[in-house]
Design a protein that fits this description.
The structure is a single chain. Helix content is 23%, strand content 35%. Helix 2 runs antiparallel to helix 3. It folds into four domains: 99 residues, conserved putative lor/sdh protein from methanococcus maripaludis s2 fold (Beta Barrel); 66 residues, OB fold (Dihydrolipoamide Acetyltransferase, E2P), CATH 2.40.50.100; 78 residues; 101 residues, Beta Barrel (Elongation Factor Tu (Ef-tu), domain 3), CATH 2.40.30. The protein is built from four helices and 23 strands. The chain is rod-shaped and about 195 Å long. By secondary structure, it is an alpha+beta fold.
Length: 407
């Protein structure tokens, strides 16, 4: 029985080994499958040369072209003010803004007129005496020439000077009387009005601050880069202003959800660069900024912040590509005729928030990749789409040569 205990386990192990070998020999080899790499779909656009109008974007604050401080030249109490002598009110050139009490100055005019009459009488008397002295000299048969004193010439000169002095005093009195009426030097608007009727004023007292309304001006800073692409009406010695050419500018103001625009022109550049910003300020003018030309458009007010778009130079035969298509380090992705991505470094000659302008490094007809491809590698295969349609042949999987030009 002992041999059965030893032999039986061995037979069981041998049988299990035979069965395992039979199973392994009868099984089929597993099917091997190759994993296909997914092809990324990208939007593309053919590169085309074009002419491009550059727009310089900057900003500034509205200010008046002419601003003045009204100060009286005589003393007195304000007895009358115009209805337009109020902050924010408009007035016309030659309009009387206020009047100072002029009784004392009217009296001074009367006194000066009396003094002039006396001086003229004295001059007439001296002239009559001089004429009579000359006649008497000849009547006496004098053969020598009479002296100046005999002919009353010094007295006549003194009387003549008295007339001139009296006329000057009268003119000064009349000027002081006229100065009691403060007249607007131009059509404008009241900025500040620190005095009012009943107040006593004297030379040096500020009556008002006013500004002209014929034009509004905006100082616009430009960098050296921007100055390269815009025509600035520079001033040269010996050149008249009529020889300058202005540059068109569009000014935009945002009032809440509404946007308003004014058309102006760059009329001059300032004589020096701003030391802090290293920029040159140019001055834009808007004609009649307070006129009601469009009922829905408010006036362009002093101190208002505006955004400016200056019409720059026109670049010819250049490529304009969207900024979103440019990767870091100034690189773009192009799709070659084998549907593979190719990186290309570019150098912009002009750029803003939306576009980049280049004139070299790429060729007309090449396909620019507009899709932002994450971890894009040189030479990976993509599926280009133009206007939502695939840009390749189903048979070859390649671009049709007639669709584009390759460098």
């Amino acid at each position: 029985m002992e041999w059965k205990k030893v032999l039986l386990p061995l037979l069981i192990l041998l049988g299990a080994l035979v069965i395992s070998l039979l199973i392994m020999q009868s099984s089929e080899n597993p099917e091997r499958r190759t994993r296909k790499t997914p092809v990324t779909t990208v939007d593309v656009t053919p590169l085309k040369k074009q002419n491009f109008q550059i727009t310089i974007r900057t900003q500034g604050t509205v200010r008046p072209r002419t601003e003045s401080t009204l100060i009286p030249e005589v003393s007195g109490r304000i007895i009358k003010t115009s209805k337009n002598f109020r902050e924010g009110a408009f007035f016309e050139a030659g309009e009387e803004l206020l009047q100072i009490e002029g009784s004392n100055y009217q009296i001074a005019v009367t006194v000066a007129e009396a003094q002039l009459a006396e001086a003229q009488l004295s001059f007439a008397e001296e002239k009559a005496l001089a004429d009579q002295a000359l006649k008497n000299w000849h009547r006496l048969g004098k053969t020598t020439s009479p002296t100046a004193l005999v002919l009353h010439k010094p007295q006549l000169a003194r009387a003549k000077a008295g007339v001139a002095s009296a006329k000057a005093l009268l003119k000064q009195a009349q000027l002081n009387l006229n100065r009691t009426r403060v007249i607007a030097p131009y059509a404008g608007r009241v900025l500040e009005q620190p005095v009012d009727i009943g107040q006593y004023v004297s030379p040096g007292t500020v009556l008002a601050k006013i500004y002209a309304v014929d034009y509004a001006e905006i100082r616009l800073p430009l960098s050296n880069r921007q100055l390269e692409f815009v025509e600035i009406p520079e001033s040269y010695r010996g050149e008249s202003d009529s020889q300058k050419q202005s540059t068109e500018v569009t000014l935009t103001v945002n009032l809440g959800s509404q946007q308003h625009q004014w058309l102006g022109s760059i009329v001059r550049a300032e004589g020096t660069y701003d030391i802090k910003s290293r920029r040159l300020f140019v001055v834009a003018q808007v004609e009649n900024p307070y006129g009601r030309e469009q009922p829905q458009k408010p006036p362009l007010k002093v101190g208002q912040y505006v955004e400016a778009q200056i019409k720059g130079k026109t670049l010819k035969d250049i490529f304009v590509i969207p900024r979103s298509a440019v990767r870091e380090n100034s690189q773009i992705l192009l799709v070659d005729k084998h549907n593979k991505l190719q990186m290309r470094s570019i150098k912009a000659i002009w750029e803003d928030d939306q576009i980049i302008v280049i004139n070299s490094g790429i060729t007309e007809g090449e396909l620019l990749c507009l899709t932002s491809v994450t971890f894009a590698a040189q030479g990976i295969t993509v599926k280009p789409m133009l206007n939502g349609k695939p840009l390749f042949s189903k048979e070859t999987g390649k671009h049709k040569p007639s669709k584009r030009k390759d460098s």
